[in-house]
Amino acid sequence: MVNRALLAHRLFTGISRSHLALLVEELAVPWQAEVEGRRHASRGGARKRAAGAGARHRLVFVDRLVATLIHLRHDLPHSVLGLLFGVDRSTVTRAIAEIRTLLAERGCAVPDRPGLRLRTLADVFAYAQAEGVELRLDATEIQVRRPPAGRGGRRAFVSGKKKQNTMKATVIADWRGRTLWTDTLRPGRMHDATAARNEGIAVCFQHFPDVEVLLDDGYLGLSRDHRGQAITPPRKPRPGALPSRVQQWERDRHEHSSDRITVEHALADHKRWKQLTRCHDQAKDASPAITHQLVRPCPMW
Known about the structure:
Residues 225-258 are annotated as: Disordered. Helices cover 44% and strands 14% of the residues. The chain is α/β, with parallel strands linked by helices. The chain folds into 2 domains: 4-104; 108-289, no CATH class. Strands 3, 4, 5, 6, 7, 8, 9 and 10 form an 8-stranded mixed sheet that branches. It is elongated and about 80 Å long.
């Protein structure tokens, strides 16, 4: 076995030791409750012995969390992680499934509001309207394995942009590039604006009329339906327009791109995690792989 303290280093887990300590403190009790609840359900009744009695876990909670972070950060196979931690591959597989479920339920942290976490699109719009935050929205694609032959809807995963089988996720960030929300993965063939509509962004625009969202040219339909709220780059002047108008269009477009670039920085930060670069599972709803909302505890800015 490798030194456990070495495996908890930031180069392996992708987060600092202080953030790791916060995650351990936050998730230890929910994990214990989940494990005990599953055991009671399998036994068909409540606990019959004192807490702490019975067989001990060969892979304790902290090691389970560290193994999960290493898997998300570097995409190491479960068998390799089992060798590092001195357990069987199946033990690592169960541990990662447990921890990823807990991480996915945490939502995204709000640095300016300690203890507040955003889990739904409505939460993000409510926070933006209350704090006067201008949102940035964009979509990113993750390459996946080609679905098996004969599966219904197989072509839905073929992305015309990437020329690959992909799944798409929509991300919202603030003006500093901090992720506030992301949706579940959808087939890559779906248009960016359609994915946003399916998450209920039109309803959020109606209930929160003061919120503005900066978008790129892929969301012109949203800009047409929600003028003044969904803001896209200015349209290019027609051929033959005055040079002054063309120059003004170039300045406006550059200013819009400079304001919206922070969401691109957020997407780049997500791609540091190998699980967000390529998903080796078969194309399916793999929302727990959205690791930017999974691994980041309350930021300490």
